[in-house]
Amino acid sequence: MGLFDFIRNELIEIIDWVDNSSDTLIWKFPDNENNLKNGAQLVVRESQVAILLDEGRVADVFGPGRHVLATANLPVLTTLRGWKYGFESPFKVDVYFVATKQFANLKWGTPNPVILRDPEFKQVRVRAFGTFALRVREATKFLTEFAGTASVVRVGDVEGQLRSAIVNKFSDTLAEANVSVLDLARNYQELGERLRPLLQDDFGAYGLELTRFYLENASLPPEVEAFLDKTTQMNMAGDMARFQQFQAGIAVEKAAGQEAGIGGAAVLLGGLGNMLGNATAPAAAPASPAPAPAPAAGPNREQIVAMLRDLGQLKADGILSEAEFDAKKAELLARL
To answer: Would the pLDDT of 286 be above 80?
Structure first.
């Protein structure tokens, strides 16, 4: 190899980037300390922008197409280098490619529950999840404000910073919306539309654009979900009396499944059933006086104590609420 061939091989003639990844935002052309040939070809594909840096300063920016790197096509670099009359020798610059395509289906979520003032439940802890999409809107700003001297920047490198902004804005927007957790599901789209312009300020600080934002799910604490389940059962039952009957049936079934619980369940069913029956029975029409029947024998002390134990077990199992337990307990204690 002659000296001329050696010098020619040290010069870069074609500069391009074929992106085989799906998450690369910035890629620096690996020049290996070589110089660019005067008249080298710069190939910029669709959804790409090429930025030339001269000693750390942004020189020229090129959009899609084939460009010849010559004095006439490098106005800023020509000014920075002081080439008043053109140049013929090789030159050295850093070439960065920036992907301007849309990066979709990026995940966001609240790492910890967000405390929300709720008009129905006062204070509720809510966790939310969703997706968003972004693209580079200002390539030069993104390179200078975020990438710095990094030779490769991927979506994962910016997601953490953007997620923090999303969580902060989500908490504020949810509080201002004053939407009950019962109505969150039907307000997902509205909340997403309200959040998107607010988040654009944080994205725009890095030269990015938030193109899509979705709130997909909001989960509630287990105790709130349990309360909603009980409310659903009550609505299915239709009224409080039928709901109490429904709960009493569950209580008997649970007590019968425990050791030596069948007898206690039967007594509990008899004692509570009489009260529930009296509460739900329609008022009888007046009738002619009749001789008063002999009073029926009520449960003895041992049966009442057994009923109290069963009540305590039903409360511990979550079948009876605190108020229901206290009411039945007071009535049974009054019989002792």
So the answer is: no
